[in-house]
Give the backbone structure.
Amino acid sequence: MSRLNSVGELEKLRAEILEKRDSGRPCITTCLGTGCHAYASQDVYNALAEEISSRGLTGKVDLRGTGCHGFCEQGPIVVIFPGEICYCRVQPEDAADIVALTVLENKVIDRLLYEDPVSGQKYERESEIPFYKNQDRLILGQNRLIDPQNIEDYFALGGYKALAKALAEMTPEDVLEEVKKANLRGRGGGGFPAGVKWETTRQAPEKEKYVIVNADEGDPGAYMDRSLLEGNPHLVLEGLILGAYAIGAAKGFVYVRQEYPLAVKNLTLAVQQAEEHGLLGDDILGSGFDFSVSIKRGAGAFVSGESSALVSAIEGQVGEPRPKHINTAISGLWGKPTNLNNVETWANVPYIIERGAGWFNSTGNEQNKGTKIFSLVGKVNNTGLVEVPMGTPLRKIIDDIGGGIPGDKRFKAVQTGGPSGGCIPEQYLDTPVDFDRLKELGSMMGSGGMIIMDEDNCMVDVAKYFMHFLKDESCGKCTSCREGTKRMYEILDAITRGEGREGDLELLEEIAWVTENASLCALGSTAANPVLSTLRYFRDEYEAHIKEKRCPAKVCKALIRFTIDPEKCDGCGRCKRNCPEGAITGELKSPMTIDSSLCSRCGICREVCHLDAVTAE
Amino acid sequence: MVNLTIDGKKYQAEEGQNVLEVALENGIEIPHLCYHENLSPYGGCRLCLVEVTRNGRAFLTTSCTYPCLDGIIVKTDTPEVLRARRLVLELLMPLAPEAPQLQALARQMEIEEPRFKTDEEADDCIRCGLCVRACTELVGAQAITFSGRGYRKTVEPPFGEEALDCIGCGTCVFLCPTGCIQMVDKSAERTIARWQRTLPLKACSSCGRYYIPFAQIEFARQKSREAPAEDWFDLCPDCR
Amino acid sequence: MEVKEIERIMEKYDADRTDVLGMLMDIQEKERYLPREALRHLSEKLSVPLTRLYNMATFYEALSLKPLGRHQIHVCMGTACHVRGAARILDKLESSLSIKPGEVTPDLNFGLKTVNCVGACALGPVVQVNGEYHGNMSALKVERMLKRYSEADKEKTE
């Protein structure tokens, strides 16, 4: 591929690509994102490729492997264009039917359509499915149309138009001004205005400046950054190049978790392609602007996502936070002004530049503009990535998009903001989701994890879970964080084992206070949130554990006992065969019994019982 | 020079000085364990917390890492500051319950009954990192390091084995606030058990006292720009 | 590990010491652990103190000073997996393999580790083996999965 030396050459190439493409030609897209990949979507893709070639349809039917569509739980997902017919849970054996019926005869295969678990209704087109229909997929939308390893796909959808516009028509100050006007707030957690941060770095006296994509997505339960990097890496790159232009940086880094190998691969490829096309490197599009990007892999440390720790990690030091009375925006990487934004923030930038701040501001509420991607997971019917305008009520996300809670279970809480966030109970479900309102509720936006919990989840157990996470992930520098998280975990663990004592909750609150107020970085100063928010809304559950030695959700092993209902049990023996402790006895075809003294409460018997005869009490 | 207020009184400080330094110079006591004037500030123990007001916003921060900035107001004894320090010390105590320096602080802060049980694996180390910084910044031997993270964080030589780069100078021993690094000289040998290191000592040619590890002499010769005279180490400092 | 191999990895990063973490990860991938002599070699050639390399090796989850299993099983402990019963999956793996997280079976065939979210939250509970994802795990599926990996090994040796 030859280098593009001007904006004109870019537009010429785009026109050529579009001319080659016939929008009427059938195209089968298969999601190859991590979620679908786990359901063997690569096999589906290969079967489709085989089917197309064996029928001699090569060149007449396109096949495209795309990034994550978001509806991961229904994977592997196959969408056939131009009709946009969406098939879910597709197996390799379905390939023949898909080509023969849907592609060649325009017939819809009923058995592969998505069926709403609540209403039972089936949907043909992807965009009609309630999960998608109620979303506003500004940032994620291109994922399903693009082969992330093919820069031409990105060009075909208008890729690098924003960069061309900025370089040809705008000064760096104009770009900065536009992002400021858009009031784009950082999607990584705090919600700090990106434009203000950019300006600080731009105006810092040192000439050499850096820009960084923070792709160390560590919040458990959040994976939107992964899907963007895997599914549309050029969008993030284009945002970064625009930022570098506005700030005056010649060098950028992407710090990405090694746990995301496909993201590393696609991003590496994207950087290469951008370099080959002259979109990275010296004299980008003939504008005189130089900018290059390096990719750094993180090796698995949650705390390294903190800005000063991330800077240390890129410098080749241990990824520990450092005191930063002077902001990284002024003194960051190697002491130079450094601007960090997370993946989703950067992905917003090309749209803002191309379509303008006014357009961006038309979505969202007063202080929170644009959309936000959430990973809607846990006890919800439709799990996956969800993108909605800022300020959308929680209830709409959980019920209209998520399809509510599976089974006849009751909603209990939604956990947002990762380990720094909190649990929000039912009475606040009408709250519009934005940076400020979540904070008021004792939680936070974080990077957008949204974990739904039902009546079967114990909130003390959830608090203990997060504290376990945090005590492991604390870097261990500050006494208040290292010892505070350890002690909070010990107390929570004792409570779940039925060894809670009078005064434990007050002691928890004291340690929470010092952890919050005496620690250096954001990990420590927010580490108490899971405890504080569950204490605030679910104190009675804690008290039941301590005073009555009872786990109301029947989760805490030491406080429950499994029994088999002799009325329901048909003596099939599945539980007996699978019990790892040999705690279940009984003759085949007659009811089984559990010896509580041997039982380890692993719950396997309940999982394998086909009659729901095992209960916890 | 910058102007700042500490506990209601105005002080002048040099740019680049930290708050703790200026407070100590002026006789204002702030408890601290991980700070040493000759080492880079670390901000780990969190005992030197103070309340700083800057641009109208008040917050708790460690005085050892906070720079003296023009116009800041520092308070070293608000109820919040005292509460935080007390809790921090309570969290530290179970790591080194017998350490005299910690016990003295506990008496000062009127902590009577420990609320947290002593860890089984407590080894008297409070992870203040003075030894690591001394070995890196002052001595330059870089024989020991932090390892692990979170509550598992500890100080050890690489691979948890004999500290092959340790020259037995004993700087870490002198700086440790809990006395958890012990150094024993027995006739011609020096042992620092914590770093699993035993080194032969050189005797003073005058008084005969074994006074310095050969490894330290070797290290000093390599590091110093102007090598000391060949016979400089023959005499101990007392006989020189 | 051969010196040549270490040198090759260093070259890939132009022997730039700020990329030492990347080098460590490459060595880890290659050898399934960080051999001491490799750390010593890097330390010497890049003039990075051995203490810093050791600190990094113990700080980052992806690095290990002990050999990992040929089939390294990562049980995702992310929140989404947790609320869908990841603890039960871990219990099952511990009892089936008779090892605790962080350990390796005596024949080095299987290693068990917990990880804090692999970012495949919609598939929870998730187990990752040699980089392959297994979604919607249950105790029964764990049995089948282990059997599959053991049998695949047998076929290879036969």
User: Anything to note?
Assistant: Residues 529-547 of chain A form the longest helix (19 residues). The mean pLDDT of chain A is 94. The two ends of chain A are 67 Å apart (CA to CA). The domain at 157-361 of chain A is CATH 3.40.50.11540 (Rossmann fold).
